[in-house]
Specification:
- Helix content is 30%, strand content 26%.
- It is an alpha/beta fold.
- It has 2 domains: 261 residues, Aminopeptidase; 127 residues, Glucose Oxidase, domain 1, CATH 3.50.30.
- The strands form 3 sheets. It has an 8-stranded mixed sheet, sandwiched between helices. An 8-stranded mixed sheet has the order 3-2-9-5-6-7-8-4, with no helix packed on it.
- Helix 1 packs across helix 5 and helix 7 crosses helix 9.
- The longest helix is centred in the first third of the chain and has 31 residues.
- It is elongated.
- Bound molecules: zinc ion.
- The site of zinc ion (ZN) has 5 residues, from helix 5.
Protein backbone atom coordinates (compact mmCIF):
# COMPACT_ATOMS: atom_id res chain seq x y z
CA UNK A 1 0.00 0.00 0.00
CA UNK A 2 2.66 2.45 1.11
CA UNK A 3 4.89 1.37 -1.78
CA UNK A 4 2.24 1.90 -4.40
CA UNK A 5 1.41 5.26 -2.86
CA UNK A 6 5.09 6.16 -3.06
CA UNK A 7 5.23 4.98 -6.66
CA UNK A 8 2.18 7.07 -7.50
CA UNK A 9 3.74 10.06 -5.79
CA UNK A 10 7.00 9.54 -7.72
CA UNK A 11 5.10 9.28 -11.01
CA UNK A 12 3.26 12.44 -10.05
CA UNK A 13 6.57 14.27 -9.47
CA UNK A 14 8.04 12.99 -12.74
CA UNK A 15 4.86 14.12 -14.47
CA UNK A 16 5.24 17.57 -12.97
CA UNK A 17 8.90 17.96 -13.83
CA UNK A 18 8.34 16.87 -17.44
CA UNK A 19 5.42 19.21 -17.79
CA UNK A 20 7.52 21.94 -16.21
CA UNK A 21 9.97 21.95 -19.11
CA UNK A 22 7.53 23.01 -21.74
CA UNK A 23 5.29 24.96 -19.38
CA UNK A 24 8.13 27.36 -18.61
CA UNK A 25 8.83 27.68 -22.33
CA UNK A 26 5.13 28.26 -22.96
CA UNK A 27 5.06 30.99 -20.33
CA UNK A 28 8.06 32.72 -21.92
CA UNK A 29 6.55 32.39 -25.41
CA UNK A 30 3.29 33.94 -24.17
CA UNK A 31 5.24 36.84 -22.70
CA UNK A 32 7.37 37.46 -25.80
CA UNK A 33 4.26 37.40 -28.00
CA UNK A 34 2.25 39.77 -25.79
CA UNK A 35 0.88 42.96 -27.40
CA UNK A 36 3.26 45.06 -25.26
CA UNK A 37 6.17 43.77 -27.38
CA UNK A 38 4.38 44.58 -30.65
CA UNK A 39 5.68 41.54 -32.53
CA UNK A 40 9.28 42.38 -31.53
CA UNK A 41 9.81 44.61 -34.53
CA UNK A 42 10.54 48.29 -35.10
CA UNK A 43 7.16 49.92 -34.45
CA UNK A 44 6.72 51.29 -30.89
CA UNK A 45 10.24 50.00 -30.04
CA UNK A 46 8.93 46.44 -29.85
CA UNK A 47 12.32 44.81 -30.18
CA UNK A 48 13.90 47.13 -27.58
CA UNK A 49 11.18 46.29 -25.06
CA UNK A 50 11.46 42.56 -25.74
CA UNK A 51 15.25 42.81 -25.26
CA UNK A 52 14.69 44.43 -21.84
CA UNK A 53 12.38 41.58 -20.91
CA UNK A 54 15.07 39.02 -21.82
CA UNK A 55 17.71 41.05 -19.93
CA UNK A 56 15.51 40.98 -16.83
CA UNK A 57 15.27 37.17 -17.09
CA UNK A 58 19.07 36.92 -17.41
CA UNK A 59 19.51 39.05 -14.31
CA UNK A 60 17.01 36.99 -12.31
CA UNK A 61 18.85 33.81 -13.26
CA UNK A 62 22.15 35.36 -12.15
CA UNK A 63 23.78 35.11 -15.58
CA UNK A 64 26.93 37.13 -16.19
CA UNK A 65 27.38 39.85 -18.79
CA UNK A 66 30.37 40.90 -20.88
CA UNK A 67 31.01 44.41 -19.61
CA UNK A 68 28.30 46.09 -17.57
CA UNK A 69 25.32 45.33 -19.79
CA UNK A 70 23.74 42.32 -21.45
CA UNK A 71 22.89 44.51 -24.45
CA UNK A 72 25.07 44.90 -27.53
CA UNK A 73 23.71 47.84 -29.53
CA UNK A 74 23.78 48.42 -33.28
CA UNK A 75 21.72 50.46 -35.71
CA UNK A 76 19.90 49.63 -38.91
CA UNK A 77 17.67 51.33 -41.47
CA UNK A 78 14.18 49.90 -41.70
CA UNK A 79 10.82 50.62 -43.34
CA UNK A 80 7.90 50.62 -40.89
CA UNK A 81 4.10 50.97 -40.69
CA UNK A 82 3.33 52.58 -37.33
CA UNK A 83 -0.10 54.15 -37.92
CA UNK A 84 -3.14 53.83 -40.17
CA UNK A 85 -3.51 50.66 -42.18
CA UNK A 86 -6.88 50.38 -43.85
CA UNK A 87 -7.77 49.15 -47.32
CA UNK A 88 -11.22 49.00 -48.95
CA UNK A 89 -12.05 47.39 -52.28
CA UNK A 90 -15.35 48.59 -53.80
CA UNK A 91 -16.17 50.16 -50.42
CA UNK A 92 -15.62 46.98 -48.42
CA UNK A 93 -13.01 46.88 -45.67
CA UNK A 94 -10.34 44.18 -45.95
CA UNK A 95 -8.81 42.39 -42.99
CA UNK A 96 -5.16 43.32 -42.55
CA UNK A 97 -2.78 40.35 -42.64
CA UNK A 98 -5.59 38.01 -43.70
CA UNK A 99 -7.10 39.39 -46.93
CA UNK A 100 -4.06 41.43 -47.79
CA UNK A 101 -0.62 42.51 -46.64
CA UNK A 102 1.26 45.64 -47.53
CA UNK A 103 4.56 44.90 -49.24
CA UNK A 104 7.14 45.78 -46.54
CA UNK A 105 9.01 48.17 -48.85
CA UNK A 106 5.90 50.23 -49.62
CA UNK A 107 5.45 53.98 -49.36
CA UNK A 108 2.66 55.71 -47.49
CA UNK A 109 -0.53 56.38 -49.43
CA UNK A 110 -3.92 57.92 -48.78
CA UNK A 111 -6.99 58.41 -50.97
CA UNK A 112 -9.43 56.93 -53.46
CA UNK A 113 -8.26 55.38 -56.69
CA UNK A 114 -9.55 53.72 -59.84
CA UNK A 115 -7.90 50.56 -61.05
CA UNK A 116 -6.52 49.10 -64.24
CA UNK A 117 -6.30 45.33 -64.68
CA UNK A 118 -3.08 44.53 -66.43
CA UNK A 119 -3.34 42.21 -69.43
CA UNK A 120 -0.30 40.33 -70.75
CA UNK A 121 -0.35 42.18 -74.10
CA UNK A 122 0.04 45.53 -72.29
CA UNK A 123 3.51 44.58 -71.09
CA UNK A 124 4.73 42.26 -73.84
CA UNK A 125 7.72 44.46 -74.57
CA UNK A 126 9.32 47.71 -73.44
CA UNK A 127 7.48 49.77 -76.06
CA UNK A 128 4.11 48.37 -74.99
CA UNK A 129 4.89 49.14 -71.37
CA UNK A 130 5.51 52.82 -72.13
CA UNK A 131 2.39 52.99 -74.30
CA UNK A 132 0.26 51.44 -71.58
CA UNK A 133 1.64 53.86 -69.05
CA UNK A 134 0.86 56.98 -71.08
CA UNK A 135 -2.47 55.89 -72.59
CA UNK A 136 -4.08 54.57 -69.42
CA UNK A 137 -2.92 57.41 -67.15
CA UNK A 138 -1.64 54.93 -64.58
CA UNK A 139 0.13 57.57 -62.52
CA UNK A 140 -3.17 58.03 -60.71
CA UNK A 141 -4.38 54.46 -60.72
CA UNK A 142 -3.90 51.14 -58.99
CA UNK A 143 -2.61 48.56 -61.42
CA UNK A 144 -3.94 45.08 -60.64
CA UNK A 145 -1.68 42.20 -61.59
CA UNK A 146 -2.99 38.66 -61.35
CA UNK A 147 0.06 36.63 -60.37
CA UNK A 148 -2.13 33.57 -60.02
CA UNK A 149 -2.96 33.63 -63.74
CA UNK A 150 0.17 31.60 -64.51
CA UNK A 151 1.05 33.79 -67.44
CA UNK A 152 4.80 33.89 -68.11
CA UNK A 153 4.81 37.54 -69.29
CA UNK A 154 2.91 38.70 -66.21
CA UNK A 155 5.11 36.61 -63.97
CA UNK A 156 8.27 38.13 -65.41
CA UNK A 157 6.82 41.66 -65.27
CA UNK A 158 5.68 41.40 -61.65
CA UNK A 159 9.19 40.38 -60.53
CA UNK A 160 10.40 43.93 -61.14
CA UNK A 161 7.31 45.59 -59.71
CA UNK A 162 9.09 47.31 -56.82
CA UNK A 163 10.93 49.40 -59.45
CA UNK A 164 7.50 50.76 -60.43
CA UNK A 165 8.04 50.11 -64.17
CA UNK A 166 4.70 51.68 -65.18
CA UNK A 167 5.19 54.72 -63.00
CA UNK A 168 1.79 53.87 -61.55
CA UNK A 169 0.31 55.20 -58.32
CA UNK A 170 0.32 51.73 -56.77
CA UNK A 171 -0.05 48.03 -57.46
CA UNK A 172 -2.25 45.18 -56.32
CA UNK A 173 -0.73 41.72 -56.72
CA UNK A 174 -3.34 38.97 -56.66
CA UNK A 175 -1.88 35.79 -55.17
CA UNK A 176 -3.08 32.25 -54.79
CA UNK A 177 -0.26 31.46 -52.36
CA UNK A 178 -0.33 32.02 -48.62
CA UNK A 179 0.61 35.58 -47.62
CA UNK A 180 4.07 35.65 -46.06
CA UNK A 181 5.36 38.92 -44.61
CA UNK A 182 8.95 40.09 -44.10
CA UNK A 183 11.03 43.18 -43.15
CA UNK A 184 12.33 45.66 -45.73
CA UNK A 185 15.47 47.72 -45.31
CA UNK A 186 14.54 50.06 -48.15
CA UNK A 187 11.53 52.05 -49.33
CA UNK A 188 10.19 51.81 -52.89
CA UNK A 189 8.69 54.76 -54.75
CA UNK A 190 5.33 53.01 -54.84
CA UNK A 191 2.93 50.99 -52.69
CA UNK A 192 2.25 47.33 -53.35
CA UNK A 193 -0.59 45.34 -51.82
CA UNK A 194 -0.37 41.55 -51.85
CA UNK A 195 -3.93 40.32 -51.96
CA UNK A 196 -5.16 36.80 -51.37
CA UNK A 197 -7.25 35.86 -54.42
CA UNK A 198 -9.19 33.37 -52.35
CA UNK A 199 -11.27 35.93 -50.47
CA UNK A 200 -11.93 38.13 -53.50
CA UNK A 201 -15.33 37.42 -55.08
CA UNK A 202 -15.57 40.27 -57.59
CA UNK A 203 -13.37 42.46 -59.72
CA UNK A 204 -11.81 45.40 -57.94
CA UNK A 205 -13.18 48.70 -59.26
CA UNK A 206 -12.09 51.16 -56.62
CA UNK A 207 -9.48 51.21 -53.90
CA UNK A 208 -9.86 53.47 -50.83
CA UNK A 209 -6.99 53.33 -48.45
CA UNK A 210 -4.92 54.95 -45.75
CA UNK A 211 -1.48 53.50 -45.16
CA UNK A 212 0.92 55.28 -42.87
CA UNK A 213 4.60 54.46 -43.38
CA UNK A 214 7.84 55.66 -41.88
CA UNK A 215 11.42 55.08 -42.95
CA UNK A 216 13.75 54.95 -39.93
CA UNK A 217 17.35 55.39 -41.08
CA UNK A 218 19.08 54.75 -37.75
CA UNK A 219 16.91 52.51 -35.62
CA UNK A 220 18.81 51.46 -32.52
CA UNK A 221 18.48 47.75 -31.89
CA UNK A 222 20.43 45.33 -29.68
CA UNK A 223 21.53 41.73 -29.22
CA UNK A 224 21.30 40.30 -25.71
CA UNK A 225 24.37 38.36 -24.57
CA UNK A 226 24.87 36.50 -21.27
CA UNK A 227 27.01 33.66 -19.98
CA UNK A 228 27.69 31.09 -17.30
CA UNK A 229 31.41 30.56 -16.56
CA UNK A 230 32.78 27.07 -17.13
CA UNK A 231 35.83 25.17 -15.90
CA UNK A 232 37.87 25.40 -19.12
CA UNK A 233 38.88 28.22 -21.44
CA UNK A 234 36.74 27.20 -24.42
CA UNK A 235 33.11 27.99 -25.10
CA UNK A 236 29.78 26.64 -26.22
CA UNK A 237 27.32 29.15 -27.68
CA UNK A 238 23.54 28.82 -27.77
CA UNK A 239 21.83 31.36 -29.98
CA UNK A 240 18.30 32.27 -31.05
CA UNK A 241 16.91 35.42 -32.64
CA UNK A 242 14.24 37.11 -30.56
CA UNK A 243 13.17 39.76 -33.11
CA UNK A 244 10.25 39.29 -35.48
CA UNK A 245 8.27 41.33 -38.01
CA UNK A 246 6.51 43.77 -35.73
CA UNK A 247 3.41 45.75 -36.64
CA UNK A 248 1.59 46.07 -39.95
CA UNK A 249 -0.17 49.26 -38.91
CA UNK A 250 -1.10 50.18 -35.36
CA UNK A 251 -3.82 47.51 -35.00
CA UNK A 252 -2.13 44.36 -36.36
CA UNK A 253 1.07 42.64 -35.29
CA UNK A 254 2.79 39.43 -36.26
CA UNK A 255 3.54 37.65 -32.99
CA UNK A 256 6.17 35.17 -34.20
CA UNK A 257 5.39 32.47 -31.63
CA UNK A 258 7.27 29.80 -33.54
CA UNK A 259 9.60 32.33 -35.21
CA UNK A 260 11.29 32.76 -32.88
CA UNK A 261 9.73 33.19 -29.46
CA UNK A 262 10.03 29.39 -29.30
CA UNK A 263 13.82 29.31 -29.74
CA UNK A 264 14.26 32.34 -27.46
CA UNK A 265 12.26 30.56 -24.76
CA UNK A 266 14.32 27.39 -25.14
CA UNK A 267 17.47 29.48 -24.62
CA UNK A 268 16.06 30.86 -21.36
CA UNK A 269 15.18 27.31 -20.37
CA UNK A 270 18.71 26.11 -21.21
CA UNK A 271 20.10 28.93 -19.09
CA UNK A 272 18.11 27.61 -16.11
CA UNK A 273 19.39 24.12 -16.80
CA UNK A 274 23.04 25.21 -16.82
CA UNK A 275 22.61 27.30 -13.69
CA UNK A 276 21.52 24.08 -12.00
CA UNK A 277 24.09 21.88 -13.78
CA UNK A 278 27.33 23.93 -13.85
CA UNK A 279 28.83 23.42 -17.31
CA UNK A 280 32.34 22.38 -18.29
CA UNK A 281 32.56 24.98 -21.07
CA UNK A 282 31.93 28.70 -20.70
CA UNK A 283 28.34 28.68 -21.84
CA UNK A 284 27.18 31.70 -23.81
CA UNK A 285 23.61 32.65 -24.62
CA UNK A 286 22.97 35.11 -27.43
CA UNK A 287 19.52 36.40 -28.30
CA UNK A 288 20.02 38.07 -31.67
CA UNK A 289 18.05 41.05 -32.94
CA UNK A 290 17.60 42.04 -36.58
CA UNK A 291 17.51 38.50 -37.94
CA UNK A 292 14.36 39.07 -39.95
CA UNK A 293 15.92 42.19 -41.46
CA UNK A 294 18.73 40.03 -42.90
CA UNK A 295 20.81 38.53 -40.04
CA UNK A 296 21.79 42.07 -39.04
CA UNK A 297 22.45 41.30 -35.35
CA UNK A 298 24.58 38.19 -35.92
CA UNK A 299 26.55 39.85 -38.73
CA UNK A 300 27.25 42.75 -36.36
CA UNK A 301 28.28 40.35 -33.61
CA UNK A 302 30.90 38.47 -35.64
CA UNK A 303 32.43 41.81 -36.67
CA UNK A 304 32.36 43.04 -33.05
CA UNK A 305 32.73 39.83 -31.03
CA UNK A 306 32.65 40.07 -27.22
CA UNK A 307 35.11 37.14 -27.00
CA UNK A 308 37.48 35.52 -29.50
CA UNK A 309 35.41 33.48 -31.96
CA UNK A 310 38.13 30.83 -32.16
CA UNK A 311 37.39 29.87 -28.55
CA UNK A 312 33.99 28.54 -29.62
CA UNK A 313 33.95 24.74 -29.61
CA UNK A 314 30.46 24.68 -31.07
CA UNK A 315 27.52 26.98 -31.71
CA UNK A 316 23.93 25.74 -31.64
CA UNK A 317 21.39 28.12 -33.18
CA UNK A 318 17.72 27.43 -32.45
CA UNK A 319 14.98 28.84 -34.65
CA UNK A 320 11.39 27.58 -35.25
CA UNK A 321 11.12 25.17 -32.31
CA UNK A 322 7.30 24.94 -32.34
CA UNK A 323 6.64 21.35 -33.34
CA UNK A 324 9.11 18.45 -33.48
CA UNK A 325 6.44 15.85 -34.19
CA UNK A 326 8.47 14.53 -37.13
CA UNK A 327 11.85 15.46 -35.65
CA UNK A 328 14.48 18.09 -36.43
CA UNK A 329 16.55 19.25 -39.37
CA UNK A 330 20.16 20.25 -38.78
CA UNK A 331 21.60 22.87 -41.15
CA UNK A 332 25.38 22.22 -41.50
CA UNK A 333 24.67 18.62 -40.49
CA UNK A 334 26.27 17.34 -43.70
CA UNK A 335 29.25 19.67 -43.20
CA UNK A 336 30.24 18.86 -39.61
CA UNK A 337 29.81 15.13 -40.13
CA UNK A 338 31.37 13.87 -36.93
CA UNK A 339 29.29 16.14 -34.76
CA UNK A 340 26.17 15.21 -36.69
CA UNK A 341 26.84 11.47 -36.35
CA UNK A 342 27.29 11.96 -32.64
CA UNK A 343 24.01 13.87 -32.40
CA UNK A 344 22.25 11.11 -34.29
CA UNK A 345 23.78 8.39 -32.10
CA UNK A 346 22.57 10.18 -28.96
CA UNK A 347 19.10 10.46 -30.45
CA UNK A 348 19.02 6.69 -31.12
CA UNK A 349 20.51 5.76 -27.77
CA UNK A 350 18.14 7.93 -25.76
CA UNK A 351 15.13 7.16 -28.02
CA UNK A 352 14.18 10.81 -28.46
CA UNK A 353 12.99 11.97 -31.89
CA UNK A 354 11.61 10.19 -34.96
CA UNK A 355 14.14 11.78 -37.23
CA UNK A 356 17.30 13.88 -37.13
CA UNK A 357 17.92 15.07 -40.67
CA UNK A 358 21.10 16.67 -42.06
CA UNK A 359 21.25 19.57 -44.49
CA UNK A 360 24.14 21.45 -46.07
CA UNK A 361 25.10 25.07 -45.46
CA UNK A 362 22.37 27.72 -45.73
CA UNK A 363 22.33 31.44 -44.95
CA UNK A 364 18.89 31.12 -43.38
CA UNK A 365 19.53 32.01 -39.74
CA UNK A 366 22.07 33.46 -37.30
CA UNK A 367 24.50 30.52 -37.32
CA UNK A 368 25.59 31.55 -40.81
CA UNK A 369 27.86 34.56 -40.10
CA UNK A 370 29.65 32.38 -37.53
CA UNK A 371 29.97 29.50 -39.97
CA UNK A 372 31.49 31.92 -42.50
CA UNK A 373 34.08 32.84 -39.86
CA UNK A 374 34.99 29.18 -39.40
CA UNK A 375 32.98 28.46 -36.23
CA UNK A 376 31.65 24.87 -36.06
CA UNK A 377 27.92 25.36 -35.90
CA UNK A 378 24.50 23.80 -36.35
CA UNK A 379 21.20 25.49 -36.96
CA UNK A 380 18.44 23.27 -35.60
CA UNK A 381 14.77 23.71 -36.58
CA UNK A 382 11.85 21.40 -35.88
CA UNK A 383 9.72 19.49 -38.39
CA UNK A 384 6.06 18.75 -37.73
CA UNK A 385 2.61 19.78 -38.85
CA UNK A 386 2.93 23.44 -37.86
CA UNK A 387 2.56 25.58 -40.97
CA UNK A 388 2.12 29.17 -39.78
CA UNK A 389 5.09 31.18 -40.93
CA UNK A 390 5.53 34.97 -41.08
CA UNK A 391 1.79 35.51 -40.81
CA UNK A 392 -0.87 36.56 -38.29
CA UNK A 393 -1.56 32.94 -37.28
CA UNK A 394 1.89 32.30 -35.82
CA UNK A 395 0.54 32.85 -32.29
CA UNK A 396 1.11 31.04 -28.96
CA UNK A 397 -2.36 29.42 -29.01
CA UNK A 398 -1.40 27.55 -32.18
CA UNK A 399 1.98 26.13 -31.27
CA UNK A 400 1.95 22.59 -29.90
CA UNK A 401 5.58 22.37 -28.66
CA UNK A 402 5.47 18.68 -29.56
CA UNK A 403 8.59 16.84 -28.35
CA UNK A 404 9.95 20.01 -26.79
CA UNK A 405 11.55 18.07 -23.92
CA UNK A 406 13.08 15.55 -26.33
CA UNK A 407 14.78 18.30 -28.35
CA UNK A 408 15.95 19.90 -25.11
CA UNK A 409 17.43 16.62 -23.87
CA UNK A 410 19.12 15.91 -27.20
CA UNK A 411 20.84 19.30 -27.10
CA UNK A 412 22.02 19.02 -23.49
CA UNK A 413 23.23 15.43 -23.98
CA UNK A 414 25.12 16.49 -27.12
CA UNK A 415 26.94 19.26 -25.25
CA UNK A 416 27.55 17.05 -22.19
CA UNK A 417 29.41 14.47 -24.27
CA UNK A 418 31.97 17.17 -25.00
CA UNK A 419 33.94 18.28 -28.05
ZN1 LIG B 1 13.32 32.93 -37.59
Amino acid sequence: MLRSALLLFTLFLVGISNAQDSSYAKEMIDSLCAPRYHGRGYVFQGDVKAASFIERQCKEKGLKSFGNSYAQSFTLGVNTFPGDMSVKFNGELLQTGVDYQVNPGSQKINGSYKVLYLKPNMVKNQEKILKTASKKKVQNRFVVIDEASENAIIEEFSKGINQNPLNAKSYVLLKDKKLTWWVSRRTYNTTILDVSKEGLDKKIKTVDLAIDQEWISDYQSQNVVAFIPGQVDSMVVFSAHFDHLGRMGKDTYIAGASDNASGSAMLLDLADYYVEHPPKYNTIFIWFAGEEAGLVGSKFFVEHPLFPLNKIKFLLNLDLMADAKKGITVVNGSIFNDAFDRLNAINERESLLNQVKARGAAANSDHYPFYEKGVPSFFIYTEGDYKHYHDVNDVPENIPLTNYSEVFQLITSFVKEGF
